[in-house]
Sequence to fold (288 residues):
Amino acid sequence: MIRLIATDMDGTLLDGNHQISPENIAAIREATQRGIKFVIATGRIMADVQGFIESYGLSPYYLTMNGAELHAPDHTLLHSAYIDHERSQKIYEIIASFSRFNLEIYTDRGHFSANSRLKTYRGLLDRMREVRPGTNFFKNFLWSLKNPHFKKLQYIKDFDAFWQSDVNIAKFITFSRAPGKLAALAERLAAEVPDLAISASFRTNIEINDAAATKGNTLNILTQQLGIAEDEVLVLGDGTNDLSMFEAFPTNATAMENGVAELKRAAAHITKDNLHNGVAAAIGEVLA
Fold:
């Protein structure tokens, strides 16, 4: 019997308009009404997730920034795994040595851009082309202007002061339209900086966390606290940053049809894609 459901957001729970479909909402509500715990497991920062999810009337656990933070439904911080400042500076120096990369740093005090406002905005438009395929430039431009993530983004003006502050650094995320350069960057980071977890949510980014900050590790901490066994957990995802959940909870690991090949190979089940209510279909199977 399933006692906990954990789902990724982008490419999994969210549709092509970055919303949660009525079908997915209905399935989640049915599950929670039966006493099943619900977890949002995302690479996003808490500030980007909380209000959006709760606007649908949901009160999940929040596993954010790929597992760097875990929050209870009442937003209490239950667990964290941050990157120390020495390694953070080294990560930044390596990424900065690669030209034309956009970089954001997620912390316990919000998210920061390491680039100029103009370069950051251009990078956001590039990302919109990836996550909103088929949408024309003008619509992406208007959507970007209203994007809460961009509105809340802070800009680092003094890096020395930033590194010397007591901010807790949870994740680096860098973007490029050249997947080959991202692969080279990932290889260099893995070789030169110890104890990192390097993953991706789209083919145009890589995400860098502390080695302990993976979705699988943090979800395992939560299930142990709740007394829930591995085979009582349903996990859903589409990207390589979901792979650790599939490895930690393989029995009911369910990949989206639109998921990356590596994740689908690790899955016990494949559900419909995120444009056709794959989350609802998977939940329906376990509730039947």
Notes: The two ends are 11 Å apart (CA to CA).
